[in-house]
Write a structure and sequence with these properties.
Elements: E1 2-6, E2 10-11, E3 18-19, H1 36-47, H2 53-57, H3 67-74, H4 88-95, E4 104-110, H5 116-128, E5 133-139, E6 144-157, E7 161-170, E8 184-187, E9 203-207, E10 212-227
Antiparallel strand pairs: 1-6, 2-3, 4-10, 5-6, 5-10, 6-7, 7-8, 8-9, 9-10
């Protein structure tokens, strides 16, 4: 039987996906920038309660001495409009501004996995522990993308336990979802446990506009909150 699990404090409303503290989570990046990584980090930080949506969207009022102010100022170091994109080290560095917050300690750490299936299972484990996961996707034909994993679909197998079939994404390049908790999907395996595609790009990425692209999940970054 198919089942879906979502981050514990993520809720659906007619205004869009929000946390149980009534903070809207989804952010939409510009069409011409490569800031999907920082946007994904910010969505994770909003979910974890490290920043508010008002702080993120009211940039004119930001104090450069605050953590969110330093976060935003550091984006200029990545090139205009973050056009060159960001990698794993960049996102960990951005998350470090919130590592010693007075409200909570945020840690962003790589998920160690040797295969796509193992990464999908460890990502699902993180979701079960109420930890959003930043995921790096490589496209067939070139290019890469970051999105935030907020849930997953799975089926139970008599032979091999649970099979993670899909990762459910809040994708900053897509419109804010209003009828589901996600606006993008990584199709990882069939219900049999077999990968979707043979070769270098074993998974498929779906968008809300029905576009399907072969891809590979390069890595995942787990975002952990430790309250004091």
């Amino acid at each position: 039987m198919k089942q879906i699990r979502i981050l514990e404090r993520l809720e659906l409303s007619f205004k869009g996906v929000k946390t149980s503290d009534d903070e809207k989570v989804a952010l939409r990046q510009g069409d011409m920038d490569g800031a999907c990584g920082p946007y994904s980090v910010l969505m994770g930080l909003i979910y974890q309660g490290a920043v508010t949506r008002d702080e993120v969207t009211s940039l004119a009022r930001l104090d450069g001495r605050t953590r969110i102010g330093k976060f935003m100022n550091s984006l200029y170091e990545f090139n205009a409009m973050v056009r060159d994109g960001t990698d794993e080290d960049d996102l960990v560095r951005l998350g470090n501004y919130f590592k010693n917050s007075p409200y909570s300690q945020i840690n962003i750490e790589p998920i160690k996995a040797k295969s796509t299936k193992e990464l999908a299972h460890k990502t699902a484990d993180a979701i079960d522990d109420d930890k959003p996961v930043l995921i790096w996707i490589d496209w067939q034909g070139g290019g890469a993308h970051w999105a935030l994993v907020v849930g997953y679909e799975f089926v139970d197998s008599d032979n091999s336990g649970s099979i993670i079939t899909k990762l459910l994404l809040l994708d900053p390049s897509e419109e804010t979802p209003r009828l589901s908790h996600w606006n993008g999907v990584i199709h990882v395996t069939k219900e049999s446990g077999n990968v979707i595609n043979s070769g270098q790009f074993p998974s498929n990425h779906w968008t809300a506009k029905s576009k399907v692209t072969s891809c590979k999940i390069r890595l995942g970054l787990e975002m952990t909150k430790e309250s004091f």
